Amino acid sequence: MAIVIGATAMVALQAAKGPLYAASARVLVPSAPLSRIITGTQVYIDPRTAQATELELAHSPEVFDLAASATGNSYGNAGTMRGSTAVSAQSGDILAFSASSKTPRAAIGIANAVARAYIRWRASLTSNAVGKSITQLQDRLSTLPAGDPARSDLQSELTKLEVLNTLTSTDTLLVQPAGGAGKTRPAPIHDALLGAALGLLLGLLMSALREAIDTKVRSERDVEDELSVPVLASIRTLPRKVRVVMYGRYERFFADTYALIAAQLTQAAQRLQGAARVQGTVIGITSALPREGKTTTTCNVAVALARRGARVLLIDFDLRKPEVGRTFGIPLGAPGVVDVLAGSATLEAAVRTIAVENGRLIGLPETNGASAPIASDGSATTIGSLHVLPAGRAVKTHTLADSTELAALLRQLRLTYDFIIMDTPPALLTVEMADLGQHIDLVLLVIRQGKASQRSLRTLNRHAQKWPAELVGAVLTDAPGQQSYGSYYGE
């Protein structure tokens, strides 16, 4: 896009400036002038040095003063002519005087006038220098007696200088006066290519600047580089106001992705249980910041594990902003983990069951196009089971996370469930994850693309290294279509 914009803008800009014509006159400036060869006064000068000197002389203000005077300011004053003229060195002791103007006549006139003015001015410089030398020799000869031997040598030098003075004007010649002018503007193809190149360069610079300023996470590679753990899956944006997509009308688009996450968590749990010989696996799902899709990911992963035949308990431990209960339709104010730990409710009264039969959730009718689960008491399941322990009453304290009551509750739950999934608060804003780490076996991080910054991930990684729990991987949410893992059958 930047290339197209650059090319279009350059063509339009050059066209708006109007036409421009260029003409060129060529002047021979011999490095070995004939006059000096004849008089024997030629000395060696490096050709590159001589050419650089001639270019400096050609840009002298006096040259353009002479040119403007000679043309009666027909093509502008000396400053205008100087701004319109460029002088360049070419092979064969040639200087090219190129002039640009809005009309061919002016371009030709300026080029020829400046070239001729340079010839005259250069001749005057040489003539003045030789004339001064002649005067100095004549003055010296006048002071010497008639019989002085030095008079002969001085007279010989004086003769050479007088001959050189008569030949100076022929050293520099106008070998090719400007006879025509070519149109240089507008040149659509040239302008388009130049604009495209500038647009590309500007686009690259803007991209580099954006990368330097905007350090938001944009890809799986960003996540893996900062966290040093694999991205288990990338999930594209879910439909608005829909959280659980493991069943209902959106199942075919998202179920495979969450099933992939569940399979990898199952493998990690089996490896962990085999090494530690423990029963039940506690998985904490957290994020760096709020609104990264943590609760949505937690709920769908829990459903996916249950559909694999596991006995799953989902605990809402985001006690300050609980959302799991509302997601599964549990009535507001129902007893939860806070009440169980406080002893004001029993575990049996607080846990709600979502039935799973033949690997699928049942009793989940569609309402207004979105899946609306119905939580119920009891445990009528066949292959797998999904239980939900809501937060209960909201609290603004973190003391429950490291309580002895929680440790005892989790030991009891490990004997009943294959997976205890805990939806925890954002790890960088609260202390709960640091305290829960001693009770959790595996941690899954949820990162929203375009929200979390690379700096926040680096900070999260430093925190995670202090957790006793193993950081098993990350999930990238809100990923673009080309980055997300779509359903094999859905699209």
Structural class: alpha/beta
Which sheet architecture does the biggest sheet show?
Answer: 9 strands, mixed
Tell me which oligomeric state these chains represent.
Answer: single chain
| Amino- and carboxy-terminal Cα gap | 29 Å
Give the number of helices.
17
Task: Give a written overview of the molecule.
This protein has a nine-stranded mixed β-sheet with strand order 6-16-15-7-14-8-13-9-10, sandwiched between helices. Strands 1, 2, 3, 4 and 5 form a five-stranded antiparallel β-sheet that branches. A two-stranded antiparallel ribbon has the order 11-12. It has 17 helices and 16 strands. By secondary structure, the protein is of the alpha/beta class. Residues 37-41 and 362-382 have low confidence and may be disordered.
List keywords for this structure.
491 residues; alpha/beta; nine-stranded mixed β-sheet; five-stranded antiparallel β-sheet; 17 helices; 16 strands
